[in-house]
């Protein structure tokens, strides 16, 4: 329950309850004592349920819940229940649900109704989590990405004896990359052609299911005639 000292909060646009945990999810109530005017709540008490901390949630998280708000009638010792019983889906896109016109101020401020007694009132919420499911997808695109050229000079190529070699790590597009060289070819190309790959060096920091679209060009320089051999490709 959320106990409010009305004279303290009437001069602010909204007030927050202390976050509480339910099914390992922290939630809080957001109260607009003078109404959420941005959502046509002028003249009403506005109350919302908000996900308090979602920083550790995986990409595409969703929480389906049904909830009811309560206002305590301090004279009758009972609660006024407000809610339509509809399922609400909380997500990174919309993590707040509630009522902009929960209760009219004229009814709320009338002491004979029992909601506001001795400058205090009590709000509550009952939450039923239906199911945590679904994985939404979102993507961001770097506008006008800068071209990054990385040069790896391999010394004493004829003396390379290992199956493969890595270049030093370099930074491009906010991520760390490297090149992987197979001097004698890899898999079906073994003994036939040189093999060269682009690798994402910091892939372990991403969540499961992440995807990254990359377009790149690998080039082997012709140091004599400048007839460079290059291949352009892409991957996700």
TrEMBL record:
* Keyword GTP-binding appears in the UniProt entry: no
Q: Name one Pfam family in it.
A: MATH_2
Q: Where are the transmembrane segments?
A: 6-25
Gene3D superfamilies per the UniProt record, alphabetical: Apoptosis, Tumor Necrosis Factor Receptor Associated Protein 2, Chain A
Q: For this UniProt record, give its keywords in alphabetical order, as a comma-separated list.
A: Membrane, Transmembrane, Transmembrane helix
Tell me the domain of life: Eukaryota
Span of domain MATH? 1-127, 147-236
- Tell me what this protein is called: MATH domain-containing protein
The scientific name of the source species is: Salix udensis
